[in-house]
Amino acid sequence: MALTSSGFIPQGNLNSDSSALGKAGRKGTVAKVLKALRKYRFLIVLSLVLATVSVIFTLLVPKEIGKAVDSIVSSGDEDLFIHLLKAGIFALIVGVSTYLMNLINNRISFLTVRDIRNEAISKLQTLPLKYIDSHPSGDIVSRIIADIDQFSDGLLLGFSQAFTGVMTILGTLYFMLSMNIAVSLVVICVTPLSLFVAKFISSRTYSMFKLQSAERGEQTALIDEMIGNEKVVKAYGKEADAVEKFDEINERLRKSSLRAIFFSSLTNPCTRFVNAVCYALVALTGSLFIIGGFESGIGAGITVGTLTVFLSYANQYTKPFNEISSVISELQNAIACAARVFEIMEEESESSDEMMGELAEAGGTIELKNVNFSYVEDKELIKNLNVDVKPGMKVAIVGPTGCGKTTIINLLMRFYDVNSGEILVDGQNIAELKRKSLRSNYGMVLQETWLRSGTIKENLLLAKEDATDEEIINAAKMSHAHSFIRRLPNGYDTVIGEGGGSLSQGQKQLLCIARVMLALPPMLILDEATSSIDTRTEIRIQKAFNTMMEGRTSFIVAHRLSTIMNADLILVMKDGQVIEQGNHESLLAAKGFYYELYNSQFTKI
Amino acid sequence: MLEASFELFVPLVIAAMIDKGIGDGITEGGDTGYLIKSFVILIALGIVGLISAVSAQYFAAKAATGFATGLRHDLFKHIMNLGFDKQDEAGVSTIITRMTSDVNTTQNGVNMFLRLFLRSPFIVIGAAVMAFTIDAEAALVFVGVLAVLSLVIGLIMKANIPMLMKVQKGLDKVLKLTRENLSGVRVIRAFSREEKECELFSENNDKLSRLQLVAGRVSGLLNPLTYIIINLAIVVLIKVGGVKVNSGVLSTGEVVALYNYMSQILVELIKFAGLMVTINKALASANRISEVFDISEEIQKDTDDSNIADAEILKENRLGIEFKNVSLRYQEGSDESLSNVSFKINPGQTLGVIGGTGSGKTSLINLIPGFYRATEGEILINGHNVNCISKSELRKKIGIVMQKAVLFEGTIRDNLLWGNDKASDEEILKAVDIAVATDVVNSKGGLDAHVDSGGHSFSGGQRQRLSIARALVRKPAILILDDSSSALDFATDLKLRTNIAGLDYNPTTVIVAQRSSSVMNADLIVVLDDGDVVGMGTHEELLQSCEVYQEIYNTQFRREED
Questions:
Q1: Distance from CA of A121 to the nearest CA of B (A)
Q2: FRET pair for B204, CA 20 to 30 Å: which of A322, A415, B4, B509?
Q3: Contacts of B49 in chain A (CB under 8 A)
């Protein structure tokens, strides 16, 4: 599941319904796009100028060649030379201006992508966790990577293509009309046909593509499941069954993609056929006119040379028509992608804390006063929570799954804001503090370990950038990570893959603990931080924590009761409320919920 | 291809139209009938072209999808046969990416390649050949142009492909950073690293756009260059042709035909340039796929003459396990994960394996079904070396429950039938009962309840119990439990262990655990520390002799110390 959503680059979301955007929404998006491009307006104008130049000269080249052909007929050698020279020079101009235009277009599109991505990542850092937690990360990644790419490709290149297309059509029309109106009319009447053909086909193939991507999704899910859990598949010798199931989907996918690819590829030959008809008509009418030898009227001025030119124009004129339907859908898709990107950009950031106070090295008094909190509006989770923590206290939170233990951590770190009530650190309301200064007072190790791809050392340095090797090794020794790091192929310089790669869950937890030990924070939060570490090592680590956290406040969330027995204050939670508070002895003596929990683990065979 | 050749006739017809139809028509009135005939020929050529193009597209699509389907099948099968060590090395997520998006890219590339390369070279070369039929001397221009063009295209592609690969790598890096920023958002904020992360991202992002610009500078050359070369060639052609017309060797129509051929070459090459990126991407993806194919498959067994061992293992329901001086090293050069492990366990006995995180417990049990090969020493099942037993036969006799409990999409019954296809509902329910999972099955609505991919609607403890039931449905000769009750509360764990100890078919059982309570009733307990065996014996013996075991025991039963 995690892999389908984030394991590979999702294709730009082609299914995003651009029509749902509505006219106004689309206009708004276009305005935002223009704003993002403003920085490059000079380059855009330059690109358009170059496009115009190259279109005009592209059209002039056949004209000169037509004249040259005529001079062959009329045997004027000097004329021939001049026309050919002109044609050559024009061709050079076209080549150079096209190249420059390419460079400029590349520049505009790649730099815009870069700008938007940088902006998106900065934005990401300010988005509230509520947004990030509630949106699949694969979706956000695909917006930042695939959608932005699609947007720049589609919009900028689509735009310049559309622009050159329209220019070519207009220019060709002008040149054709100036040569012969009747033959031009033939071209004008026939070519739009290809547009209809293209449109007809693309509207039919849409559903086929949808089916194809649905089946592809199904296959990816199976791949994910079977390969992701291949060890189990192999343990049960189910390889052949997996392949059989895979083949069944594979065969369906083959059929649907054959249909989709085939029908969509019909566009090209069909429009080409229309072109061929157009070509033949031009040749026929042109020839007839030449034979007719009209001196004036509709057939006037046609020569063998102009006919050559016409034939070449007929080709050039139909090409943009063939492309225009795909350009339009590309533009629509690009705007839809842009809208998805801007959606992130416009999400509300965490409230600004520029003006808020700083929290100096915290003393460690923490007070929760009448705290209420819920993730979803009508589903209350934390109700009227009151806790009083003195400096240096070791606070443990226990309780069954889903009782709100992790939620308290989220609130303490201000990953989420309370609905009502207040949390005070050293007497200051944390809502009135800079988030950064609050968070830098905590060291945090979560159950979900997070390691980035890079060396072990780089991962540890996340906590304290200027740490010396000695400090690093020291922290690793304290967290008992040193012995396994030492045994890795390159020790501290061993590169680990994304998400910790081949390290075991316990080893990853040890690294995260080493990281926090390096940071040496005034307050500590451990959320199931040792769940995959054996009890023996855990106790040693706890001893290290005890020394390290001497006089510092710490919070521990744990399943294993042995982890929390020594806490100064144990909060027993159930359904969002603290139902019992006290230390181990007093809670046992109370013979309540904690007593039950505690005894269940010591039953022997 | 047929279409291409028909297309090549068009200029000839036009030439004939100009020469015969118009000819000296200005003076003689021309041949209108011939013109109309030619027109009909042109249209007919168009229709034939359409038909052959459509069939060409059909076969291209068929070939491309057939190719991709076959490729996916082979790849999937290959991956299914990889050994664990190879799989660890490659990484599951890369394999999945290659299997999905890389195969799609390749399919796309093959389709484009077929469409384009079945057409373009024929048109280009055909155009040149047709030019020869018109006039050999003028056609030499074509030969020159083709030589220059192939040189230009070749050079640009050669320079560009490595650049595009670098771009792809840069993009991968940016993608990875984005993903990390999301998955690690809590850690990043907790360490107040937001700005640092933005810097790191911009740095890589800038690098990517620079790479893209450089690559674009080269690939952007292709189109304008071909355009210039072809147009200059046309100029030369008409110049040469003009002289020949004057001397009566060529007709005007033929010069026009030559010109048309040149234009056709241009159109094809421009299409080619447009698809170069697609082809390049497909090539890069194909490389990544072939890397997966290069990983060697798991060796089923070492020698072929040991069918006796297979046959014996297959019918034997009581299997003993012996390790003789076994060492395991996952990678060349890294430290040993297991060093010199020796023990022997008889059929029906229970082995306990205990030790700290990373002490090699899972490595040890992974050697029994032959998931990894021992670097040194040998593992014997009933006296036969595992490397000489067919893996698939061996694994049929083993029920293994892994640390990470996984369920697959389907019904609960489907999942449990993995253990034994032929099990009746009665047998399944019995296994469920032994695994203390009856309440799980009932609460979900019976055996036909749906399990979604990954079993996300089940809690960790429920998944563990169903995984155990799955292993029990098989009535294995060897039952391996790798820390598989960690999410169970103590009471359920106790009941589970009692049930397993009372199994009527009495399998040889291997229990890996962190709690000493889970292994204390085993016939033999192996205590591991950093890959070394630091103690071996029964619970009572170890309490006397093994310091590490005492420590583990004490941390869990400290209450008795108090």
A1: 6
A2: A415
A3: 269, 272-273, 276
Report the pLDDT value the prediction gives residue B307, as an integer from 0 to 100.
62
Residue of A nearest to B496 (CA): A605
Q: Any chain A CB within 8 A of the CB of B373?
A: no
3-state secondary structure of B91: coil
User: Does the distance separating the beta carbons of B362 and A1 come in below 8 Å?
Assistant: no
Is A125 at the interface with chain B, CB within 8 A?
yes
- Structural domain includes residue B107: yes
- The whole-number pLDDT of residue B299 equals 65
Q: Is the dihedral of CA B474, B475, B479, B483 positive or negative?
A: positive
**What number of CA atoms fall less than 13 Å from residue A455's CA on the CB side?**
10
Spatial distance between the Cα atoms of A502 and A509, rounded to a whole number of angstroms: 13
Q: Which of B476, B553, B547, B559 is nearest to B513 (CA)?
A: B553
Measured on CA atoms in the order A63, A69, A73, A74, is the torsion positive or negative?
Answer: positive
Measured from the Cβ of residue A542, the count of other Cβ atoms closer than 10 Å reads: 19
Query: Would you state the structure tokens that stand for residue B286, as one six-digit string?
Result: 């194909």
CB B302 within 8 A of CB B387: yes
Nearest to A189 by CA among A281, A271, A268: A281
Q: Please write the tens of the pLDDT for every residue from A405-426.
A: 778 888 888 888 888 888 988 8
Q: Which of residues 285-324 of A touch B (CB under 8 A)?
A: 287-288, 290-291, 293, 304, 307-308, 311-312, 315
Contacts of B208 in chain A (CB under 8 A): 114
The region that residue B245 occupies, defined by phi over 0 for left and psi between -120 and 50 for alpha, beta otherwise, is alpha
Cα dihedral sign, A490-A495-A497-A498 = positive
Look at chain B and report how many structural domains it folds into: 1
- B52: domain range? 2-294
Domains within chain A, CATH numbers bracketed: 20-179+335-348 (1.20.1560.10), 181-301 (1.20.1560.10), 449-520 (3.40.50.300)
Q: How far is A258 from chain B (nearest CA, A)?
A: 6
Q: What percent of chain A has pLDDT over 70?
A: 88
State residue A18's pLDDT score.
39
Question: What residues of A are in contact with residue B187 (Cβ under 8 Å)?
Answer: 444, 446, 450, 462
Greatest Cα pair distance in chain A: 119
Q: Is residue B316 part of a domain?
A: no
B30 touches chain A (CB under 8 A): yes
Q: Are the beta carbons of A530 and A487 closer than 8 angstroms?
A: no
The β-bridge relationship of strands B524-529 and B321-328 is: unpaired
**Chain B contact present for A124, CB below 8 A:** yes
pLDDT in tens, B139-169: 788 888 888 888 888 888 788 878 877 887 8
Yes or no: say if A382 and A404 are a contact pair by the CB < 8 Å rule.
Answer: yes
Residue A370, chain B, CB below 8 Å: the answer is: no
Interface contact flag, B235 A84, Cβ < 8 Å: yes
Phi, psi of B172 (to 5 degrees): -55, -40
ipTM: 0.76
Domain of residue B234, CATH code: 1.20.1560.10
Which of A598, A540, A592, A533 is CA-nearest to residue A565? A598
Q: Minimal Cα–Cα distance from B393 to chain A, Å?
A: 9
Give the Cβ contact number of residue B344 at 10 Å.
13
Alpha helices by DSSP H, listed for A553-592, are 584-590
Would you say residue B331 lies in a domain? no
Q: 3-state DSSP: chain B helix, strand, coil percent, rounded to 5?
A: 65, 10, 25
Would you call A69 and B17 a contact, using CB atoms and an 8 Å cutoff? no
In contact, B463 and B434? CB cutoff 8 Å:
no
Residues of A in contact with B92 (CB under 8 A): 3, 227-228, 230
Specify if B111 maps to a domain.
yes
